[in-house]
Amino acid sequence: MNSTxxxxxxxxxxxxLFFPSTYIQVQDNYIHRLGIEGRPGYxxxxxxxxxxxxxxxxxxQSAYSAHLKYSFQVAPGTAADKVYGGxxxxxxxxxxxxxxxxxxxxxxALYLFQGARIAEFxxxxxxxxxxxxxxxxxxxxxxxxxxxxxxxIGTKANAYLNAGVYLNWVFSPSFDLNVGASAMHFSNGNTxxxxxxxxxxxFKIGVVYNFNRNLDVFKExxxxxxxxxxxxxxxxxxxxxxxxxxxxxxxxPGGQVPAPGKYGVAGFNFAPMYNLGYKFRAGVSLDGVYxxxxxxxxxxxxxxxxxxxxxxPPLRKQLSLGVSARGELVMPYFTVDIGFGANILHGGNxxxxxYQILALKIDTGHDTYLHIGYNLKDFHEPNYLMLGVGYxxxxxxxRLYR
Length: 402
Known about the structure:
The protein contains 5 helices and 20 strands. The chain is mainly beta. The strands form 4 sheets. An 8-stranded antiparallel beta barrel has the order 1-2-3-4-5-6-7-8. The protein has an 8-stranded antiparallel β-barrel with strand order 9-12-13-16-17-18-19-20. A two-stranded antiparallel ribbon has the order 10-11. The radius of gyration is 25 Å and the shape is flat.
């Protein structure tokens, strides 16, 4: 037994005897963190409501939010830390104020988030990214009688999306300071009209307390610089099944109106993906979709509440088969999937489109995942949510974390 290893074991034994709580904390494979953030922001004036056609008769351009966040981070020096750039993930709670409580409310969001290093300038200063995805509650939605001005938000609950970059400064063994910028988006995924959505860009400043970040005296003993196992490049096959519902706007004389009721959507993605390394994979996907709203048309239109005024096409006009190019960022527990595709077999009109996909895959096992995604048409027109489950065949990816 060499002297370094013997000394290390003696130190650990003495630590366990005289400082048992410290020993237990530093042995943890993760650093546990609690953070608070403030985010003053600017609201993009994407609708007449935000540009002054509201009860306050003024531009709504200032936003503010406060956040409380718990996360856990892979231990420094481990193989997972090397590969994933000190990745951390957790759950956050946010409170939002958009300057018009009566017509918009003061929503609260519950969300998952993840971040990691982009670049390390010094051992204490790095550039990081972070994204968040969840649900926001407490909105005051559009109502033709009681809240007719608010044409931005149509539901009491809406999806919350956030992404940004920031500088992380480790200014003490326990505390980090975060300063950066982020963008936020709220919408209901086209499940109800109106769905203009709300978009902001924010300055953020926050402090993170690290409950059990290792003391330097134990760092080399407890967290040696582990070697990263070689990555076996390979092709896996992701099969995703999804479903959701949506609303549909139909062309009528003088413009568009929402068709009555909700329409079901169901589909699958089958994607062979080549794994270039631990963090990236790319491939193509075969995308099959049944959209009950596709090619719905106005016949004897009188009003949007008149079911007889709208016609439903045959099934072949509601089916499509497309091909999309896919790229994925693979991190602990989460995979961010981006796709661009076009329908090659379809029923014409509504389904003759160039579509974009943004999705989050949440690991539920080594080969299984939950799928939460959104489909856009021509980069701006909302299509539908994609809520589903998936299975990954021929998954040979090593696990570097528990």
